[in-house]
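Suppose a colleague, Dr. K., hands you the sequence of a protein chain of 299 amino acids and asks what its three-dimensional shape might be. Before reaching for any lab equipment, you can write down a predicted structure in token form. Begin with the sequence itself:
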Amino acid sequence: MNTIEKALKKSGRSRQSARAQLPDRGNAEDEQRAESAQSIAPLTLPELPEGSAFHVLDVGHMKSQGLLTPEDSRSPLAEEFRMVKRPIINNAFGTRADCVRSGNLVMITSALPREGKSFCTINLALSIAQEVDRTVLLVDADVARPAIPRYLGIRAEVGLLDVLGGEDIDLADAIVRTSIPNLSIVMAGANHKRSTELLASEAMTQLTAEMAERYPDRIVLFDSPPLLATSEASVLAAHMGQVVLVVEAERVPEEAVRGALEQLKRCDVVMTLLNKACRVPGIDYGYGYGYGYGHYHKS
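The predicted structure, expressed as tokens, is then:
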């Protein structure tokens, strides 16, 4: 039984996953609570030259969303995402880098909505930003239902779809620097009726190449739509070097996971992240959490 099959088997178990869980703070209730918020209070930003895009992250708001914060470097959540990020970084820059084309382009997705993918994507970005010699660009590619504004309180005039659809908008115009030095963000941009076509366009191919090559020390994380809910996710996956499929334990049917994996069969590296699994009573997890990580490599 390979690791993907094991992960699928775990997703159907009840109270039998000893190494496959992420914090309950990334559960569906959190996403529903965030989605129900009507607005996020504007933040006070420092004076910057006209045209600069900079955002001071509200640490209190981040904590309320269950996200990592700079002072959480030794928290259980921080340790959890250290384990999650390590194989991704290794595929991009380490011993496997020669085997993974565009390994620093990483898409985080799920089969269905509300599995915690945005929570995982943002925390993974925050964890990578703590690396000494790496930077991270977080791209909100869930263009129909962008989650980054809710989680981080960021608003931006231009974003991914504006870059793809606008002749005079450059990637640099859409990048928002943050008060975390190694973390920058590109928002989803204005709604577009041909968003799928834009993501499948030559402009997207050129944009992802620019993202991958402009800063060779940078991981680019794409928060993608769910694979079985929209057409954008499978199109976006074609541009990626790595894909992480978030699977919510004990809720998502095995058929849905297999359907999502079928859409990713042309991707070179696909990893599964089992989220919201139950802890087994009486087992010491060390950090308080466990995780599940499977690998699939195209033959």
